[in-house]
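Narrative of activities, Objective 1.

The group set out to show that a structural description can be obtained from nothing but a protein's sequence at a throughput compatible with the screening campaign. Below is one input-output pair from the validation batch, recorded exactly as produced.
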Amino acid sequence: MIMKKVFIGIIVSLTLAVSVFAESAEKPQFKETVTSLGNVPDNFEAIPASVKMSPNLRHITYAAFEKTNHTRNIIRWDDRTSPVYYAIRSGFPKFSADDRHAYIAYKDKKGKASIVVDWELDGKFDNAGNFLFSPDGKRYAYHAVEGDKQSVVIDGKPDKWYTGIVMNDEDNILFSPDSQHIAYVAFDGKACKVVQDGNAHEHNFQLIKDLKFSPDSKKLAYKGRIEKKGIKEKWCVVVNGKKQSDYALIFDLVFSPDSKHLAYSAVKEKERKMALVLDGEEVDVHDRYGMPTFSPDSKKLAYSFKEDKNFYVVINSEKGPGFPMIYKFFFSPDSSRYAYIAGKERHWQCVVDDQIQSSVYEGIEAFKFSRDSSRYMYGAITDDGGKIVVDGNPHETYLSVGEPIFSPDSKHTVYRARRKKVAGWVTVFDGDRKGNYYPAIGKHFFSKDSKHLAYSAMIDFDKNIMVVDGERQCEDKKFTIIDDPYFSPDGNYVAHTAGYGKTKEFFLVVNGHVLPTTYSGFYPDTPIVFEDDNHFRIIGVRLPGPEFLLIEVEIPENIKLETDLSDL
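Output recorded for this entry:
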């Protein structure tokens, strides 16, 4: 799809200097250093969906169209402008992991596709798409069409030209995790084959799917269809060029995190039963299987299967109890524990480490282990409402509950809840209600050292505040918008954006102190990036333009948080 016209909705005025200090000696001496990343050119309008911020949050790129002629389109990278194009291909421009950038564009309605990488023309073809950078950003590839031939262009050079490049899956062109290898699926006449690092594999198939590198980049696996007669099909898995047994149907391929094992479930052609296959060998055969799951340390393999009327979970050959259904499986981060949800409609139980919890619920969601694997919790639905269950112990039942969160040190839990016959939401910390009730409460955030807790809250429909360790910040400002908080690495500072929706005046706020500079806006979900404990950066917007800004802030040390979780 090619995009020609979209719109952007931001912004108002702002007074800004390159470096701004708070004027009053009584106020904290913040330093805001603002660098212009360039204006949207006159008579052009930026396309919101195209705006991309670089991974290091120091650059911006986007597509824009001329307001009076929507067939005149440009690419901007900071303050640099591309030639004018008839159209920009949807999904572009793109950033790589190391801040390289690329786009595909068309000079005229019937013209060729121009592929531009780091402002250099990489090639012109009848058409092009599926551009991707390697994980490290140093390499790139894309699908090119010229006449009746197609190729994958790798690092600026077309590989062999084929009858077609298969693009039915997003992963049919992919780099290995270490960026050293590339593989794709091509049609050579009627033969479908995998091409890896410029060399075609010897096996030919009717169709190839689920192309996948192992995490260590040393193995390449995929599924190949051998034949299809009516509704009957025959598939096999190929790993590093070696074919495994044939099956009527093969489901997702799953590598272990250490790359030593590959597992999948498959339908046996004659018996019409399913097999669980590990490293090319059938482990077990049953009526039905769930997707296999490896533990994070790769030492355990878990899967579910159905036999007769029950489902069972197997972990390293040890079979668990039977249930009408098995729903979701979880390994703990250290691989020592596991859990799954089992039962039937409106009658669900949680099984943790082979222990079936006695409580039965209408539904169970949001299961999670703590970071140190010592604890677990989940949300449960009952006839009377919802509750959070922590380490097997149910908390109070509420009309509704939000997602539960563990602190980074795994010692604390927090979530929002709404009580029956009580207006508003309240924070529940370690099982106890804390603070005020609000019409709305945002997501809770802990500092990395687990000593502080922050969240945004709505007092009424035109007033929002930030709550840090129970302290209500910015209550006198009457902000209508407050975004998520970001803690500094040492946890001494919490920064966020805030502003007034009607006047479109926005500010940066640190520990409740509103910095003096007024901005016209921040794109939704724009992160705040801390470089160290006292410095952060963000990209903002102002008029006229709009103009994009790199904003860097130095925080004075005399405003450290003086509260902690004990103040909740």
